[in-house]
Amino acid sequence: MLVNTKYGKIEGITEGECLVFKGVPFAQPPIGENRFKKPLPLKPWEGIYKADKYSAHAMQGPKRGGFYDKEFYSDPRFDTPESEDCLYLNIWIPKGRCKTGENLPVAVYVHGGAFLGGAGSNLPFVCSRICERGIIIVTINYRLGALGFLCHPLIRAEGENAAGGNFGLWDQLEAFKWVKENIREFGGDSSNITVFGQSAGAMSLQALALTEQMQGLCNKMILQSGGGYKNPLGKLRTIKEAQEIGELFFEELEIDTKRCMTDKSYEKNALKKLYTIPEDLLMMKVGKVIGRSFNEKKCMPFVPVIDGELFKESMDMLMDKGKQLKIPYILGCNGDDLTTEAISEKAPENNPMHLANIEYAKRTGGYVYYFDRKLPGDEAGAFHSAELWYVFGSLDYCWRPFEKSDYELSDKIITYWTNFMKSGNPNEPYGGEDVWEECGKTGNYITFK
Description:
- Helix content is 31%, strand content 15%.
- It is an alpha/beta fold.
- It has 2 domains: 372 residues, 3-Layer(aba) Sandwich (Rossmann fold); 59 residues, no CATH class.
């Protein structure tokens, strides 16, 4: 199946009941002198682009192993190489409906991973179950770690910001723009786009919902385990705080940033080194910075920052001023999520993330869920990211001994999510009656277990 995009012809492949376009570029490769810069718009190509395999994922530094390695990274079918050339997306379309005029609802997914890991091609993001409900699903990559969020005056952009930063968020914006411009040719409705994400993906979207740049790029949003008013998972970092992490990075590169401020010749050579150091050596240095950040600074190393361009104030201050997009929201968290470790009684009313979700919904009229299914196979419970298998309906790809009730719960959640993607109301027509009320009006939420 050939599709004419704004940039050239593209050919996808059939997988089951879906037509899939894998590894579709949405920006120029952020390599060489484009490293540590905003993404540049894609250039047109000649001929037919074969979108038949996933692209490389963003550079991610040393593998950490452990619980999540088994949970999401143990299937070699979903292994992809690492590369700085990572700005690609994947599109899943109901078979037979990839044509202009179909006007299918569109949903764009932003993966999590602490702004350090993950990819749009990871398990459990097999999108066929959602796609079969008449939704076009797009999953995206974006730059991570230092390549996505380094902040320091040495990489400032003249006339734009004081210290760079937020490149990963600009990547996301560029992907959303690509979808807005091209999805009609794939059968999508460019006026009906939901963006949804989990963990760092949800934090990204909540932040972007407060920016002018996100206006018009979506009209619904789902925030899974990463949203909330006075978000306990994280906040925008100040430039001062971010520059301290940046200094660790330049120390590892043996670049004297103070000398750069006074010696233009030295600064020129330092920048040349910054843009030409091989990516494998660069990531070795990044790995050391990650370790030092957790050990010395007791914080996540590379996160979104109040850069003076995308963000001029904190998220809470912007929310207090009513700057968030005036669109429908779903947000929620899990019973054994990241903020529950210090809680003796893990009830929703004691869960900091759940309470933050409730407060956010009261300001937006959003819907709040609480996922409390204790997954079978171990004692991890309803852990951070557990809901992903259910949201995407990809339980068959998981090692866990799921039961009939798990498949029924997944079907229920997919129905709510796809109803919302279609209309902004998760209830209709599921079950013949509304069962999930807007938290902002009633204070109610729904529990999945």
